[in-house]
Amino acid sequence: MIIGASGDIGTAIYKQFATEGDQLILHYHQNKQALEANKTSLHQESILMEIQADLSTAGGLNHFLEQLTLPVDAVIFAGGKAYYGLFQDTDEAVMDSMLKLHVKAPWLISKHVLPQMIARKKGKIIVVTSVWGEVGASNEVVYSSVKGAQNSFVKALAKEVAPSGISVNAVSPGFIDTKMNGHLPAGEKEIIIQDIPASRAGTVEDVANTVSFLMSDKSGYINGEIIHVTGGWMS
């Protein structure tokens, strides 16, 4: 199951798994057109169901859980949104929305799927977080805070469910070429890239490949880790 499958990173992840023959449950909020456009090149039988829901609201989250009737072997949290602005100017409604989307939704969705994973003694939970969850960013205090909470969630839950054969890990991207960074002027992007040892922005495929590795049996002894995909930036 991929949460946020219509976003840039979510799309790259679901396309990779669909071409590898996995069967998928796809979640999206608003961008159904992107979801449909990317499905045309994939085997339709690979998509078991799609669920539309706004996970930043209690009603949307409850709707999602009610629709989730199929068994889930693995869940990948690839959704989310950034928020830019001075912390002292941030409205409380924005704070509540960001907390529900990035923290409470992963909590409740994981809680929903864990019993079946524990019964099978097998399962994977992967969260796409952010480098800002570890080092923080000015003008992105709320976003940095909720991403830091995701990292703590991964580390703590991994210890709790590892005895049941379940792995919980995170992929922490740095500067990735996605629409989330589309607001940055070209000059500012170039300054950031100059500061990255790999001398380029990351791609959504870089993130998807890391998620694919964590989903494979080759990562069987990796648990509770935050895997950086940063090109050496912020290391």
| Total domain units | 1
The value of Rg in angstroms is 17 Å
Total DSSP E strands: 7
Contiguous uncertain segments of 5+ residues: none
**Shape call:** globular
The secondary-structure class comes to alpha/beta
Averaged pLDDT, please? 92
- Can you summarize the main beta sheet? 5 strands, parallel
Task: Describe the protein.
There is one protein chain. By secondary structure, this protein is of the alpha/beta class. It has one domain (2-229): Rossmann fold (3-Layer(aba) Sandwich). It is built from eight helices and seven strands. The chain has helices spanning 8-19, 32-39, 58-67, 92-120, 132-135, 141-161, 186-194, 204-215; strands at 2-3, 24-28, 47-52, 74-77, 123-128, 166-173, 226-229. Helix 2 links the parallel strand 2 and strand 3. Helix 1 packs across helix 8 and helix 4 runs parallel beside helix 6. The chain starts with a strand and ends in a 6-residue tail after the last strand.
Topology at a glance:
Layout: E1 2-3, H1 8-19, E2 24-28, H2 32-39, E3 47-52, H3 58-67, E4 74-77, H4 92-120, E5 123-128, H5 132-135, H6 141-161, E6 166-173, H7 186-194, H8 204-215, E7 226-229
Parallel strand pairs: 1-4, 2-3, 4-5, 5-6, 6-7
Helix pairs in contact: 1-8, 4-6
